[in-house]
Amino acid sequence: MNGHEAALPPAGLVVLYQDAELVAIDKPAGLLAVPGRGADKADSVATRVWAQWPQARVVHRLDQATSGVMLLALTRAAESKIARAFAERAVRKTYHAVVAPGLQAPPDAVRDTDGRWCIDLPIGRHWEDRPRRCVGGPHAQDASTWVQPMPAPHALGDRVALQPTTGRTHQLRVHLAAVGHAIVGDALYGGALHHRLLLHAHRIELAMPNGRALQVSSPTPF
Known about the structure:
By secondary structure, the protein is of the alpha+beta class. Helices cover 13% and strands 31% of the residues. The longest helix is centred in the middle third of the chain and has 12 residues, at 76-87.
């Protein structure tokens, strides 16, 4: 089921899909997913959505620099069921990115029949340089990202589709940097300079609490 598009007045966001259970927002790059501490961090996707749907609950987040599909539940029951789907890795997420050119799968990488290959590296906190994350370290958690090259050329590097099966903080950014091909615009992890991070949450697919299959997508802006 594909969502419809409608403006979310008066906040300047785009609603990709909305029903009685959830709302899917097309998050712009540079906007926080949820409010932070201090007046300068009060503006966020969640803050703007609460003005329209005060009962909305955030069920997953995107980094401030990342654009694309972000979900918020509109009931407690939906929040619980969608959160469980994320925890059980039953939500399929596809991101589009531009990375440093020449990306190739390592010889020992796990591959599938669709031409994807997997980065399977644990991610932990970078205790000496927060908020960065790193591969390995104390209390690192398992993390897997499927990588699929995209044929469309880009002047700044290689286009790739990324499908994480885990949801670690900065996972895609850490994994691509770890294999020597940081995402363009990612100053935190050594990516080429650009006015924005070229990482976009393109599509989310999941089973709705009512049992329906839902697919919500956002056009990639780069």
